[in-house]
Amino acid sequence: MSDLYFDESVIHLNLEGDTKEDVLTEMGRHLVSKGLVKESFINAIIAREGEFPTGLPTAGIAVAIPHTDVEHVNRKTISVGVLKNAVDFGVMGDDSKTTPVRLVFMLAMDEAHAQLSLLQSLSNIFQDEDTLKSLVEAKDKTNIKQLLEEKLSLITL
Amino acid sequence: MKKKQVLVACGAGIATSTVVNGAIEEMAKEHDIKVDLVQIKIAEVESYVDTADLLVTTAMTKKEYPFPVINARSFLTGIGVEETKQKILEELKK
User: Fold this and answer.
1) ipTM of the complex in this document
2) Of A29, A114, A120, B74, which has the highest C-beta tally within 10 A?
3) Per the UniProt record, which residue ranges are transmembrane (chain A) (predicted)?
4) Interatomic CA distance for residues A142 and A21, integer angstroms
5) Bridge-partner residues for A112, per DSSP?
6) Is the dihedral of CA A83, A28, A131, B8 positive or negative?
7) Could you give the residue numbers annotated as active site of B?
């Protein structure tokens, strides 16, 4: 188990893509280039998203939390993508529906069944319309980084 | 009362089931109900058909199981979470 890698370099603003596959490839490639995940991560996460969609309609901005098996991950990280235009993702647990996603939290986890507090904090963000709005409207990566560090309690004092 | 076996499943058994597992654990404690929580991938449900009492999942289930299935997406989005908790509680109290 490694420490969570999180800084501006895994945050993407104005991410463009026509399909969820475009978005996942772009974000995945970036993680590969940083050595945080293995090359196999990209195909694995696309396949997983097809089989088990992760789109979550919220009270405000719809989000997606694509993720895949631990063996594709070198170091634990959360990559954040703020999409320029909404991209349809399948709704988690309901493959007849899609939801227009503006925020993607790509989870690269290196241990199964762990990270409870981190994931709970993340789901708290999904339930907080104001935070979601601030993330989508943020003008620079540092704002997003600071907001998430605070909301996910990433800074250990 | 026999301890109920509750399966908590998502596609990967990594992210969403962890959140749901935590929520049910808390709920059971609150109501003083003992449960045997098993966190698995949805593909592993088959191995538990003879022992499980309930399946709580964020993934799609296309098969029929001999126990009730409750969708748990609400634990992540907060939309309808009280209703979902009630449903789970009812099953646990049976």
Assistant:
1) 0.84
2) B74
3) none
4) 26
5) none
6) positive
7) 10
Which single residue is written with the structure tokens 């309930």? B54
- Here the tokens at position B13 are 């058994």
| Identity of the residue in A70, A91, A123 whose CB atom sits nearest the CB atom of B14 | A70
For chain A, domain boundaries: 8-151
A&B contacts, CB < 8 Å? 84
Which of A58, A64, A111, A110 is closest to A83 using CA atoms?
A: A64
Is B4-93 assigned to CATH 3.40.50.2300? yes
Helix then strand then coil, % of chain A, to nearest 5: 40, 30, 30
| Cβ within 8 Å of residue A96, ≥6 positions away | none
Q: Which residues contact A95 (CB under 8 A, 6 or more apart)?
A: A53, B60
State pLDDT tens for residues A39-64: 999 999 999 999 999 999 998 899 99
B76 touches chain A (CB under 8 A): yes
Q: Which residues of chain A have pLDDT under 50?
A: 157
- Any CB–CB contact under 8 A between B11 and chain A? yes
Note if the pTM is more than 0.90.
Answer: yes
Fold of A8-151: Mannitol-specific EII; Chain A (3.40.930)
The closest alpha carbon to A42, from A32, A54, A53, belongs to A32
